Structure formats: C-alpha cells, structure tokens
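For practice. Any example?
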Amino acid sequence: TYHGGLWCCNTGEHCLEKNELITPAPPNSTYYMRYTIDYDEIQPDNRELYLAGCCDASGDLSHHGAIEYDVPKCDPSINPGCVYTVSTRQHVGTGSAVFGLGDDYTIDDREVELVYAVGHQHRSGLGIHLFNDKTDEHICSSMPTYGTGIEAGNENGYVIAMSTCTFNPPLRMRTTDVLRIIASYDSTVGHTGVMSLWYLAISNVPKTSQSTSLDSVVSPSQTSWKVVGAFSIAAVATIAIAMYQRAKHQGYEVVNENTPVHS
C-alpha cells in the first residue's frame, strides 16, 4: 500500500473514481513564492555548469532511484536512537532528465570537475553525506537547518536551509567514478515520500587546467565560481517533478486517510 508521496497512482496501484470519493473538495488556496536571482555580465572565463546524474539515496549503481522513499517508525527496543539511515553507491554520471525519473544509467566515461554540492532532505532529515567510494575520503556533508519562528523562511520545525560545499580548485573526477551516499532521518514517527538527494554542479574539463583529483583530500572552501546556473537547474528539476505529477493526476480530488481504498 502506498501511503503518500509524489508517486500517487504508481504501477500496480489504483486511484479512486470521483464518485467514490467521500472527502469534500478542499477550499481553494493561493500560494506565493518569492526568490532572488543574482546575475552578472558574461566573462570570457565563465564556464557552463550542469547537474551530475548522481545522487539519489534510493538508487544504486544501475538505477537512478525513485527520488523518494519511506521512513518507517522505529522500534525503540531495537533502535533506541530512532535514526533511520540509508546508504548506497552511484556513479557520478551526467545530468539529463530530472534525476532520470527512475531510468537506468547510461554513462559515458569522461572527465568533469565538481565545483559545488548541496543536499536535499525533508522535515526530520538529519543530514546527507558524500564519500569517494574508492578511497573512503569524505567529500561533503550537507546538514539541515530548522526554522524556529513563524515568519516566512523561518517556519518552526521545518527545513529552511541545507549547508553547502564549494571547491576551489574544482574537484576533478570521471563520470564513471563511484560515490557513496549516506543519509539519515529521525524515525521517532514514520515519514512517507522523503528525499535524500545531492545536487552536484559540475563542469566539463577545460583543455588546460589544474584541479584537485578525486583521489586527493578535498577541503570545501569559498569559490568565485558562478553557481547560479546550478541553482536554476535544481529549481527547474523540482518544479518539473511537481508539474509532471500534477498533469498526470489532474482531475482527482484529495484522498485522506479515512477514504476507503480498493486494492
């Protein structure tokens, strides 16, 4: 039984017909989003950034992943700390569709440079970590910051930011290199449809450059790289997922936990 998340009406699951819905239609709501875009004049030394195919904690070496997964409620007698952790390995890969939307990998072997990394988690996330699987070296950890107030952007108990890593010089790697992803959630209560993703902004290797190899120790630092493009891609990816699901299921009303489900 699918309890919640993006993939409503997934393969083998069935939505109710409209005449079977007992939940009254919810009132219309209006939401606003405010954002800031910084830009500058293009310079000759500017380089294009794009997202790597990696990383989704629900995937593996042959599959991009489902984007989301469920966190079951813990049994304190077995897991006293109630921390649910997943770990997987994935190739760096190159960006294409929105995290592949579950497609299998097709990887071309070439050099790229990592300049920026940020994780994505939902409420109750405890952090997501990235390692070089070959050397076991730590590349980046992205930790959530939780809001403490009631004003927009500081909502109490919700993730309002994730820490980031920048690399100067860029971190050289191959698209076939394997990265290890470890992500944790608080499982005091169960959660459906959570995510543990990495947005890795990479660039093609210039003809003549010096950078840090993936087999070397990496220290995240401030950088002069223009990563607005990577943020834009990440935002478009998130919006694309939402639009895809909305279009797929348009015409269905909200089904709550009291609505009978036919299997």
About this structure: The mean pLDDT is 78. The domain at 48-248 is CATH 2.60.120.230 (Jelly Rolls).
